[in-house]
Amino acid sequence: MNILVLAGGTSSERDVSLESGRCVADALRQAGHHVDVVDPRDTAVESLQRARWDVAVPMVHGTGGEDGVLQQQLLNAGIPYVGSSPEASELTFDKIRTNGLLRHSDIVVPDGIIVDSRHSLQENSEAVAAFGGQVVTKPPRQGSSIGISIVRQAEQVEAALSLAFQFDAQCLVERFISGREVTVPVVDGAALPSIEICPAAQWYDYESKYADDRTEYWISPEDLPKTLSQIAVTACSICGVTGIARVDFRVDEQGQPWLLEINTVPGMTSHSLVPKAAAAVGLSLGELCQRAIATRLSTPP
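RE: above sequence
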C-alpha cells in the first residue's frame, strides 16, 4: 500500500511525535509498503492529494494532533486514516470533559477541581488548599506528562499552578492516588496486555517516559485487578475511541483502578508502551499498524 504517516506538528510533544513517526514509517517500510512522512507544520494537510495514498497513520501528539483538528483535516482531504473521529479525539484530549463523561458512566476517576488562570494565584492556591491533601496538577489539554506536578506540600502549590498555566488557561487539580502506575493499550476494541510502569524517578514524568533507561516495565503482572482490561475497553467505547489507543490507570493499595486518561495517538518510540504490549503477544510494530489499517479500511466511518 501507499501509506501516509503524519508526524511533527507544532505542539510541545513535537520531538516525540517525530520519533514516533520515524519508528512507524520504518516498520511499515520493512513490511513492504511505500511510506511518505509529512509534517503538518510544513505542509497543509487539506492540500494533500487523496489519490496518492491508500490510508494515513497520524502520529502527531498533543495539540493539533490528538484534539480532533488533524482528524477533521484528513476528513476534509478525503484521506482515510487510522484512529478516532474528530469528535472522539476532541473529547478525550480534554481531561475535564472525559472525566465527567466517564464518572457519569460509573468509571472510577480521581476526584478533582478546576482552577482558572483568570483568577489570582492566591485565589487558586486557596482553592487547592481547601480541596486538601496531596494533589496532582495538570493542564487538561496536554499529554506526555507535560505541565504536570505532584503537590505534596502547601508551599509547592503556586509553582505547580504556574507551570500548568504555561500550557493551558485551566488547571485540573486531582486527588493524588498512591499506588501502581499501569497502562492498557486498546486496539479497535480489544485490549493488549497491561503494563506496570516502575520509573526510577519519583513518578513517570517526561524524562522517565522517553529518555531514562532505568524505567522498568512489567508485562501482565498476575496481581493486577482482573477487571482492568475490561474497564479500558469500556472507557474507549463510551468515548467513541477507535484505532490504536492507550488507557492509563493508577491502582491503589486496595486494588481499585482509577482511570487517569485516554490517549488516542499514543507514542510509538523505542521507549513507548504500546509497542511493548504488542511484542508481548508476538506482534511487531509493523504488524500492529497493519492490523489497525486493515480494520480501518474494512470499516469506513
